[in-house]
Specification:
mainly alpha, elongated
C-alpha cells in the first residue's frame, strides 16, 4: 500500500518472536496481526524509555539540589588566584 511514510523491515529472530509472543498475550485482540503487535510494542517501548529518561533526570536533579551549596565557603575568595600563582607563566 502506498504511503508517504518511511517503512522499516524487521526479521523475526528468536528474541523478536519472544517479544511478539509476550505482546500477543498482552493484547490478544492483535495476536493474529504481527505488524500491529510490533507497532504497539514500539509505542509502549517508546513510552517506557521516555519515562525512564524522565526518572533518571529527576533523580539527578534531586541529587544536585540535595548537595547544592555543601561546599560553600570551603575555598576562599582568592583560591583560584592563589592556585594560579604556582603555575609558570
Amino acid at each position: 500500500m502506498p504511503t508517504p511514510h518511511r517503512r522499516h523491515a524487521i526479521t523475526e529472530t528468536d528474541d523478536i518472536k519472544n517479544a511478539l509472543d509476550v505482546a500477543s498475550r498482552a493484547w490478544p485482540e492483535l495476536a493474529d496481526n504481527p505488524g500491529a503487535l510490533l507497532r504497539r510494542l514500539v509505542l509502549v517501548g517508546a513510552d517506557a524509555v521516555s519515562e525512564h529518561h524522565a526518572t533518571v533526570t529527576r533523580v539527578r536533579r534531586n541529587a544536585v539540589d540535595a548537595t547544592s551549596g555543601t561546599l560553600a565557603g570551603v575555598f576562599g575568595a582568592d583560591y583560584l588566584r592563589e592556585l594560579g600563582e604556582d603555575w609558570p607563566e
